[in-house]
Amino acid sequence: MIASASGSEAAPPKARLAKGVLVGLAAALMWAVYNIGVGIGRTDGFTSADLAILRYAVAAAMLAPFLIHRWNRLPAGLTFRRVILLSLAIGPPFAFLFNTGYGLAPLAHAVVISPGMTMLVANALPALLDGQRLPMHRKLGMVVLVFGLVCIAADRPASAAADANALLGDLCFVGSGTLWGVFTYLLGRWRLPAVETTGAVSLMTTVAFLPVYLLFFEPTATLSSWQWIEQAFYQGVLGGCLAIVAFTAAISLVGPGLAGLFPALVPPLAVLLAVPIAGQWPNGLQMLGVAVATAGLVLSLDILSRVVRRLRSGRDRATAPR
């Protein structure tokens, strides 16, 4: 039975909100490391197909034993049809659009358009389909977050083919961000468990993509075993498994609207993590973008209002007549 909501999106209890924010930040952090790993893999000579199969197959191998163990106790809501829909949202179509966009449009466009569309779709679908009202602080926070992404993107280099095909690449990023927003919304609407759902989607995607990979692509032969193991960690363990499990858990805790903001934190976190991992120091504009994006998340979570209300409550209690 699909859960439906009406009216404004109910604010989760404090403990639930805090836990959801923590696991959402953990997902964004792991995706940031994963993105840095993609850059390392591209430099080493991995193809898009190589990275994609590692992402899906490693995650499936990690979670298949758990799925088998839980086979007779899987939730009724985790139907074959729903797994197919979720696999279409974040499986090969998503990877194809995102990787194609990287080859056509400036990298700066990917930083803004894809996470921006994810935020928009994940917050718009509950309003359009479930009658939920988007709080004003969430709207303001999303605008500030996008401005922070623009600041980070302003210093990113363009791709070689950007002049000829930038519009097509931008449309690819619109498509990939939309698919991820739909995935976020469906998980929140169906209230599916994190580990079982991630395992089922990974297994379904691997079954669908592995024959295509073996028939039409071939593994890059010039790469060492250590490079394959390194990318298996970045792509499968972090990007394909642990990050999605954490993100799915965040959706169940805070809802698809708030959870849809966490992918937008991946570029700022990647800027910071590039210092210890790749030795790349951010410039002033990038640091401004990180600060602005963080402020956008604070606004979206209504943290400032909560602090002000708590301070006022404490002051009122202190000045109340005894």
Characterise this structure.
The protein contains twelve helices and no strands. With 322 residues, the chain is mainly alpha-helical. Helix 5 runs parallel beside helix 9 and helix 8 packs across helix 9. The chain starts with 13 loop residues before the first helix and ends with a helix. The model is unreliable at 1-8 (pLDDT under 50).
Notable features of this structure?
single chain, disordered N terminus, mainly alpha, globular, 322 residues
Topology (SSEs and partners):
Blueprint: H1 14-44, H2 48-69, H3 80-90, H4 92-104, H5 107-130, H6 136-153, H7 162-190, H8 194-216, H9 225-259, H10 266-278, H11 284-300, H12 303-319
Helix pairs in contact: 1-9, 1-10, 2-8, 2-9, 3-4, 3-7, 3-8, 4-7, 5-6, 5-7, 5-9, 6-11, 7-9, 8-9, 10-11
